[in-house]
Amino acid sequence: MSKTYQVKPVSGPVEGTVRPPGSKSITNRALIVAALAQGTTHLTGVLDSQDTQVMIESLNRLGISVKHDPESCSIEVEGCAGTIPQSSASLWLENSGTSIRFLTALCASGQGEYVLDGNARMQQRPIQDLVAALSRLGVDVACENGTGCPPVRVKANGLPGGETAISGSVSSQYLSALLMVAPAAQSPITITILDEMVSKPYLDITLGVMAQFGVTIDRLEETVWRIQPQTYQRSVAYDIEPDASAASYFFAAAAITGGAVTVDGLNQDALQGDINFIRVLEDMGCEIKRGRVNITVQGKPLKGIDVDMNDISDTAQTLAAVALFAEGPTCIRNVGHIRHKETDRLAAIATELKRMGIQVEETEDSVTIYPGKIQPATIETYDDHRMAMSFALVGLKVPGIVIADPDCTVKTYPHFFDDLERLCGQPL
User: Fold this and answer.
1) Where does the chain bind phosphoenolpyruvate (predicted)?
2) Which three-class secondary structure state does DSSP give residue 230?
3) Active-site residue 314, yes or no?
4) In what helix (H) or strand (E) does residue 164 lie, and over which residues does it extend?
5) Which of 407, 422, 403, 419 is nearest to 21 (CA)?
6) What residues are designated binding site for phosphoenolpyruvate?
7) How many domains does the chain have?
8) C-alpha dihedral over 95, 96, 102, 106, to 10 degrees?
9) Cα(140)–Cα(152) distance, integer angstroms
10) In 195-259, where do the E strands start and end?
11) Residues annotated in a binding site for 3-phosphoshikimate
């Protein structure tokens, strides 16, 4: 794709059906759990993207056989039964937060020395809370530059077990990492959760994937969890549902254009919390049709809302795009933690909306958007896939919207613009 992407407005409401690729969140969790399992696991419906590719490459570097067939969206994993084969490895994770956090915990269960690093933005993303939690369990692990961010060096002698505590205020991925690896410990692990947990639905994904492989946890209290040593059992065939965060862009296309878009493969009971973005659109005035194996959003006149998006923060940028076409302001609240994502997403939202001539109020954990006349603009994406995909939606209604660095979508959705074009029935 070229260095920029000119979005062409559609001539009418967007109508059609689309199936996004498999969930990144489920794919990377399933890869970790299948790697620890006993026996061979076949994963289907998997996402093929940069985030999953670096995970697969890293598992192979650790001596765990992962065979990926992108054409059939399938992966075969030869589980290590809780014992990492390689005693040393250097793992490069680009800017994949799930990968580096999950793999740091996985390496802590090994025997040897491992270094995990990534690109310049990754070296600004926090991981100290996970490092501290692993250290409390007796693991020799540290952020090499003393910044609380990667690179991370793990000198492992197996995961001892014991008691630890972890903050939930920055990312739920730290707790997910500990939970998935805890069954491979030498003795039970008790985890106390400090602070209010952000993005709680992602923990449900973690627990759901673990349960599919035969492992459950004990909740001693609401914030105290215990995991017994045990071996994951292979899941002969584990099918990964479409990515609900990716689906939000197509639901938003219906909302913005007054069309009707159906997403196949997802329903209200999906494992991913981001499916609840449809409830936000419903509050704004859209009509939602919930099927057994699909969901349809019918666009209607939109009204601005005040919404806490802590639990579905990966769709905050999608809502920012929709908010431009509502009657009245929209406030997206309780999402301060997204400043630590691929970019400072609150600042990026505010900056790019202002670039389009929109009035925005930004606080430490919120952004309020006041709809107005939208000016043509080239949207900077900050190497953030969600900035590119969400702000491209504005161009469906407004001429002159150009997306800089559209290739950043390879992180989670390499064929996003192709799918958007097909849905709109024309080259954009």
Assistant:
1) 24, 97, 125, 173, 345, 386, 411
2) coil
3) yes
4) strand 162-167
5) 419
6) 24, 97, 125, 173, 345, 386, 411
7) 2
8) -60
9) 11
10) 218-221, 224-227, 237-239
11) 24-25, 29, 171-173, 199, 314, 341
Containing domain of residue 364, as a range?
4-21+242-424
Task: Report the CATH number at residue 13.
Answer: 3.65.10.10
pLDDT at position 168: 87
Q: Are the C-beta atoms of 128 and 167 separated by less than 8 Å?
A: no
pLDDT digits (tens, 9 = 90+) for 361-412: 999 999 999 999 999 999 999 999 999 999 999 999 999 999 999 999 999 9
Secondary-structure breakdown of the chain: helix, strand, coil percentages, each rounded to the nearest 5: 35, 25, 40
β-strand 237-239 against 40-44: which pairing, if any? parallel
Query: Residue 161: its pLDDT value, please?
Result: 95
pLDDT of residue 128: 97
Catalytic residue among 274, 314, 384, 405: 314
- DSSP secondary structure, 62-73, as one string: TT--EEEEGGGT
Longest dimension (CA), the chain: 62
pLDDT tens per residue, range 191-222:
999 988 888 899 999 999 999 999 989 999 98
Give a yes or no: residue 330 inside a domain: yes
